[in-house]
Amino acid sequence: MISIGEELKRYIPIANLIAKTFGKNCEVVIHDLSIPQNSVVYTINNHVTGRKVGDAFDHLVKQVLLSKNFKGDCAANYMTVTEEGKEIKSSTVLIRNSKDKVIGALCINYDLECMKNMKDFLDDFFIVEKESIEDDIEPFEHVMEIVDDLVDRIVGNQDINNLKRKDKIELIKFMDSKGIFLIKGAIEKIANKLNISKVTVYSYLDEIRKNEEI
User: Fold this and answer.
1) Which residue numbers delimit the YheO-like domain (predicted)?
2) Interatomic CA distance for residues 187 and 200, integer angstroms
3) What is the pLDDT of residues 90-119, one digit of tens each?
4) How far is CA 87 from CA 8, 71, 77, 109, 120, in A?
5) Mapped to the 3 state alphabet, what secondary structure does the chain carry?
6) Are 26 and 48 in contact (CB under 8 A)?
7) CA dist., res. 125 & res. 119, Å (int)
8) Which residues are registered as beta bridge partners of 59?
9) Upper half-sphere CA count for residue 7 (Cβ side, 13 Å)
10) Cα–Cα dist 144/146, whole Å
11) In the list 44, 46, 93, 102, which could disulfide-bond 74, CB 3.0-4.6 Å?
């Protein structure tokens, strides 16, 4: 059972208000970034994307932290697509604690499918930012600090020296799926964190991606 901490619990009324204001097609998700592999700690109207408590974050790195439109701790109006092919308009804002440390994120996901027949009337609402994701992106100020913290949380308190090869591959697979390796310098940082060489990280990534193609 995933519980929500007191600092993030304060955002539940805000999430409920947003969802009730915009109706059943508006999903709101609260993430606890201290537990990246199970970051979803609250959802409302989760039929929109199927997100559930205990799931991991998906778009935080690729479409929020690395977005050219990421300003003031938020990225608004970017497009995501569900596994079923539904187009979702999403916005994310980071949540900071009293010490100004990023501890979570609040995400709004709006199902656009029901609005396609109203497009002429709602053209302004359909403005979204579409960006291509490139490898080895130079991160914006403070983004690397957030990503470093995520990597530390993902690795956790595991004894790296006694960690088996398959476990290191699983950690790298998770980080790769979340876009961590798109950030410039990530290979070196993660190699150091896992006490392996850069060459080994590259070989693990090759192995992971080849297996995904099968």
Assistant:
1) 8-120
2) 10
3) 999 999 999 999 999 999 999 988 777 676
4) 28, 24, 12, 10, 17
5) CCCCCHHHHCCHHHHHHHHHHHCCCEEEEEEECCCHHHCEEEEECCCCCCCCCCCCCCCHHHHHHCCCCCECCEEEEEEEECCCCCEEEEEEEEEECCCCCEEEEEEEEEECHHHHHHCCCCHHHHCCECCCCCCCECCCCCHHHHHHHHHHHHHCCCCHHHCCHHHHHHHHHHHHHCCHHHECCHHHHHHHHHCCCHHHHHHHHHHHHHHHHC
6) yes
7) 9
8) none
9) 16
10) 5
11) 93
Which pTM was predicted? 0.79
Q: How far is CA 123 from CA 41, 119, 145, in A?
A: 33, 6, 37
- Report residue 211 CA to chain centroid gap: 23
pLDDT at 72: 92
Q: Are 12 and 29 in contact (CB under 8 A)?
A: no
